[in-house]
Amino acid sequence: MTTPEDGGPFVVIVNGETKQVDTGTTVADLVAEVAGSPDARGVAAALNGSVVPRARWSVVQLGEDDRIEVLTAVQGG
Amino acid sequence: MTQIAVQADIEPLLIAGRAFGSRLIMGTGGAPSLEILEQALIASGTELTTVAMRRVDPAARGSVLDLLRDLRIAVLPNTAGCRTAGEALLTARLAREALDTDWVKLEVIGDERTLLPDPVELLAAAELLVADGFVVLPYTNDDPIVARRLEQAGCAAVMPLGSPIGSGLGIRNPHNIRLIVQDAGVPVVLDAGIGTASDAALAMELGCDAVLLASAVTRAADPAAMAGAMRHAVLAGRLAHGAGRIPIRTRAEASSPVTGLLQQ
Predict the structure, then answer these.
(1) Which residues in chain B are closer than 8 Å to A49, comparing Cβ atoms?
(2) Which long-range contacts (CB under 8 A, 24 or more apart) does B140-147 make?
(3) Half-sphere exposure of B153 toward its Cβ, with a 13 Å CA cutoff?
(4) Contacts of A71 in chain B (CB under 8 A)
(5) Which residue out of B105, B231, B238, B241 is catalytically annotated?
(6) Which of B8, B37, B98, B148 is the most buried (most CB within 10 A)?
(7) Contact assignment for B31 to A70 by CB distance below 8 Å
(8) What is the pTM of this model?
């Protein structure tokens, strides 16, 4: 297994599933992939239990074993 | 008839300084499709509707958010499914970021079987969320003391259940709901357990400021028709509450003159 320090790729956990990403991958990259569009309206992301504000998505880079949650509103309640 | 009733109930619902013309808050869970949900929301006349927060499903088609935006209905994110104060706080913060609202229906349940609120975690969550700047509308048990504690914690409303979520059992303890209403200094929203229109009317007759329901409409055989029924029931109950009902007597009280009867 390689690490970000080695230059990647490394493993993160996105919405409960493991995923290999390259060094330099940002929250914005992952959100765009999961949500299917880069603007991802109505979507929010948390990194290791803390909300990452939308304005910081493109500057926050992922580290090994990071847990990322990408949520949106659905019917319920 | 609808117009007459609407004009008679001119006093808006006020929560945290925001006015709503409708006293029916809708949920979105259980609708068989977005199209049916849309018809039901329109028929309900609601101006505030709750949605859950879940992991993005790349395969999902259509968005409840787009629907609410198109219908100009304000969105009220909830923390449905959360079991701890910590989970509720993170969910609410994600909802605030995703939906650009600091309003939240706070739901912290004790187990999946009853879906009853866990009052200890609920109160802890309410305190955390209020401190974090949220307008907190907690789903709570029909316990007047817990309701008081939630109000003291700074919640903008209290939302006691009539009976368990989705049960359709109606209001199992009207006495407690009345006690909550009498003591509350914030709006009281009857949340959960409504089965049919008379349950919603009863909630309003007991003095509740609004009713929140989902399953009773979304799982009805004809959701739009039931939504219309709920709209009228909430109005009728509100009007009846303000109209001053007659006292309940154990014996008859003649409604015809008791003098001037013919003698034979």
Answers:
(1) 90
(2) B141/B116, B141/B117, B142/B172, B142/B173, B142/B176, B142/B177, B142/B180, B143/B119, B143/B176, B144/B176, B144/B179, B144/B180, B144/B183, B146/B119, B146/B122, B147/B180, B147/B183, B147/B184, B147/B188
(3) 28
(4) 53-56, 91, 94-95, 98
(5) B105
(6) B37
(7) no
(8) 0.90
